[in-house]
Amino acid sequence: MASFDPAIHPVRRALCFGAHPDDLDFGAAGTVAAWTAAGAEVHYCIMTDGDAGGFAKEDHAGMAALRHAEQRQAALTVGVEHVHFLGERDGYLEPSHEVMRRVVALIREVRPDVVLAMHPERNWDRIQSSHPDHLACGEAVVRAVYPAAENPFAYPELEAQGLPAYKLPWLWLYAGPRERENHWVDVTATFGRKMEALRHHLTQHPDVAKMEAFVEAKARDRAAAGGMAGDRLAESFHVVAVNPPEAIAGF
């Protein structure tokens, strides 16, 4: 199977999915910042409103609006101007056909080089990374990518709306089991912007210093796992070639 080489496969447009506001900032904001700095157009799609997050009960009624605002600011920090919200209820996300249809519509509209999403497989080493909404996000996106996005007979109303079938080249998955990781991105140069993006999610961090230490330690660990020499920081992904050159129709 083809492996991803940025020199051969430049990312000019990407569509990135997270289950909640802040998921993409934890998992991929350093990579996204590098893409936008190189001129790529990046879209975020947040599937739930994050309305079950936060710690202060007195603010809970307005949590969804707060988290939308936090995510928009975090996205701008790494150069992302397009943020889509599906509006699903936090904790109730399912890979339903309604969710999948909306994902397919967005993929066909944006027509990205890369779709980036949460991993549909549970990470038993750190169960917190496998919130049920995270798994549902990954499953919905994977099902949407193949075969629905590229099948003109899947959700035929989308074709009628001017959203023709689209064959995605690459699928990048984050927050999955370590044994699935096969691609590491050096984010040393953009790590400051990643951390700045995370700081915008004030409702989610009762101990900012502890959060920052955790994120930096994980980035150092990922760099070591990716074989990077020196004091480097990295993000890791399970990269899947959806439609490599050797693919034939339906296989």
UniProtKB/TrEMBL annotation:
Keywords of the record: Zinc
SUPFAM superfamilies, sorted: LmbE-like (SSF102588)
Any GO MF annotation of the entry: hydrolase activity, acting on carbon-nitrogen (but not peptide) bonds, in linear amides
KW Cell inner membrane (keyword) present: no
Pfam families linked to this entry: PIG-L
Gene3D superfamilies the record matches: LmbE-like
Source organism per UniProt: Zafaria cholistanensis
UniProt record, GO biological process: glycoside metabolic process
The name this protein goes by in its record: GlcNAc-PI de-N-acetylase
